[in-house]
Amino acid sequence: MESLQSEDPKLPRSSAGPPHSSNLFLLQGPREEILYLPCIYRNTGILKPDYLATVDVDPKSPTYCQVIHRLPMPNLRDELHHSGWNACSSCFDDASKKRNFLILPSLISSRIYVVDVGTNPRAPKIHKMVEPIELYWKCGLANPHTSHCLGSGQIMISCMGDPSGNGKGGFVLLDGETFEVIGNWEHQGEAVPFGYDFWYQPRHNVMISTEWGAPKALVNGFNPAHVQEGLYGSALNIWDWTTHKKLQRLDLGEEGAIPLEVRFLHDPSAAEGYVGCALNSTVFRFYKTAEGDWAAEKVISIPSKKVEGWMLPEMPSLITDILISLDDRYLYFSNWLHGDIRQYDITDRRNPRLVGQVFLGGSIVRDGPIRVLEDPENQQQPRPCIIKGKRIPGSPQMLQLSLDGRRLYVTTSLYSGWDKQFYPDMIREGSVMMQIDVDTVDGGLTLNEDFLVDFGKEPDGPVLAHELRYPGGDCTSDIWL
Description:
With about 475 residues, this protein is mainly β. It contains six helices and 34 strands.
């Protein structure tokens, strides 16, 4: 994929892609041509390294819907997960910065890979490895998750644990040129009990981080007893962006247990956003109050379904990934257990309105072993999702929206330990990538039945594909100042 056009049409296009001055300018960028996805072999029974796949998504290309390059990591059992950039729109005014390295933290091994995607975007190569011991010794942290570049040129990565597998929400800083570990972003002794995702908003001098759970609890699957034992989080942590001081801990209570992806509105002047809370399937709106502190309110709740044939008598939808369109009009999220993706109009920020829904597999398909006994939403059990003759294993999970908001890309793997527990068929058959056509005028989601990337057909065997990234930036990686 060529990079996004500079705002001055007379300037040449950079192969790596410069950052951009506003979310509305990025909205007008060219159509995506390739995507990067980490592919995971941990917990599949195949002893091969994880790799970064490059997928052709250009309908005019002869290799459309195909993996056109695979970059294997040099180690086993890393569990690649999320990724970020060495530069994004937070450093727009620095002409020396180019978005030419992809940062790939490993959730389980705690290793960080720096991948050169600028030299040849269609065939990335490893530029540097940061070994786990660097995180352990210099920061007392492990299990890196979300990576964001900073306006300073540094790279910041949230971590979920300490080297022993206990919960610990701290942040590692990398030098943006050498990619060496500098140290912790937070002050000594101010790490929070759990870590996961984060997003910052400099105009309001704030960063908000979320909480998954202690790595030792979630490493091999989900045990509901661990929630009662206090091994999973339920709070938003509010930080002063300038001083790095901890300001508030917003406990969302039982309804907000396991808050995962956090998304501010893209408008840098907006003092509000949304967080998806997995365990009880809620979305909270967080916002700055008139007094200058922060608060949160529940604005969406997906009811559990009474079932038989499952591990518990009630099945939550398990909201996992969420994102907001670049124009801040629509909110999307996936229900990884129920099997649907939902689109909400958030023009009225406090009252999201459901305008689109599509089922793409999941645990409650009508010909499966689980029977829904009672559904508060009165929805019929969905038919299995079949694309190009293939029955889709697993359920929609990671999301990425095209810059113009018209195409929603979806993968089905959450995390290998939980995939193995809840969707063993996906472990055997591999995950998939699908595409949803989006009505950006009135709202609405429609499955594109001509698009399928089947990661069950990879050369070394079925693999689990996770988060999606475009070379030129997207609505889940760019932050504007």
